[in-house]
User: Fold this.
Amino acid sequence: MRKLSYFIAASIDGFIGAPGGEADFFTDLVADDYLDYLKEECADTLPTPARRAFGIDDVPNSRYDTLIQGRASYDLALKVGLTSPYAHLREFVVSNSLQESPDPNVRILSGDVAAAVRDLKKEEGLDIYLCGGANVAGQLIDEVDELVIKSYPVVLGSGMPMFATPFRLSAFSLDSVRAFGNGVVVRQYSRKD
Assistant:
């Protein structure tokens, strides 16, 4: 069965963006050996325009073939004119207000999103990349099989949490930790049974 992997950038204090969702301040740290890691080992998770800019647009997907993101995350792409920010993946946007997709590659998920994800997990293929944001991650917390947290060496103080959920415990086991010269640390966790 395919896994749902929440592959997310976060500050040291666990925020994935400013209170309004902006997270462009993280991009300043995408450089050197960390950038090499993203291009060589995580190309599936890069937006299509970034893949083109890095000359890796033709690299086949190796880990993910499907992406799920929330409406607020998708709106950030729409604001800069991208209707299919991850055109190399099958894209799903979770939204109860967006009735029609602005792009043929983007499908809208509404209603019981967890049930839809369980159906996607039963399909053949590579894993599913949960891109963000906090609300959709909160709806899917019980379906998340893996966390890949790219911790950036900044403190935000407040902002958008990784999961917008009421207090609860969800246990994960640490699988690996990798540190980069710019201070970014990538931690990978698997859901505990």
About this structure: The mean pLDDT is 95. Strands lie at 4-11, 15-17, 64-70, 90-94, 106-109, 127-132, 146-152, 160-161, 172-179, 185-191.
